[in-house]
């Protein structure tokens, strides 16, 4: 079993839709949770960063962490064609073999105009 | 501010050839990393460095070597390329703590 599971998609939605992206994980020692966005043929860039449980909002993006269920989510409101990209969840903690970051495989999102 | 710069962007090798991928960062970051990204596998850590002159193995280090002679540069070497090393390679850097990493644009490598 992978430490981090993420549905690869692809996920196709119409412009303006609310998008929900999710990851599950198995290591209860994870404390830091990140979402990276990766456009085609580009490197990943940090989108959201959350410590421990709870919600964090930044514009149209909301990150949620539920440590009791080992489940994290990224919500995108009023999705735009420019949101079309691959979204990688990532997490780390003091117990990940030296504070390393573990990445999910990524979910491809297409937002149709 | 260039951030993290990787060279070359594309390369085609024949089996058994060697090459070096160069990563340079201008953010004065202590930590640097090399990942490979394959379909369905996500980003896998090859080697990393927590400071000038130091290197350590990651999840998939076999067939690769690295060097960090200067703080701003991190080199990834393939001594004898194999088709299994066909992948997209990303370099990243961060402040100590690993949590927020800054990535380069990647190097697409094909080994025939």
Task: Explain this structure.
- The complex is a heterodimer of chains A (113) and B (112).
- By secondary structure, chain A is mainly beta.
- Chain A is built from no helices and eleven strands.
- In chain A, the strands form two sheets. In chain A, strands 2, 4, 5, 9, 10 and 11 form a six-stranded mixed β-sheet that branches.
- The termini of chain A are far apart.
- The mean pLDDT of chain A is 92.
- Chain B is mostly beta strands and 112 residues long.
- In chain B, the strands form two sheets. In chain B, strands 2, 4, 5, 6, 9, 10 and 11 form a seven-stranded mixed β-sheet that branches. Chain B has a four-stranded antiparallel β-sheet with strand order 1-3-8-7, with no helix packed on it.
- In chain B, a hairpin with a 7-residue loop joins strand 9 and strand 10.
- The chains are: A mainly beta (113), B mainly beta (112).
- The A-B interface holds A 4, 6, 8, 32, 34, 41-46, 49, 88, 92, 98-101, 103-106 and B 4, 40-43, 45, 48, 56, 58, 90, 92, 97-106.
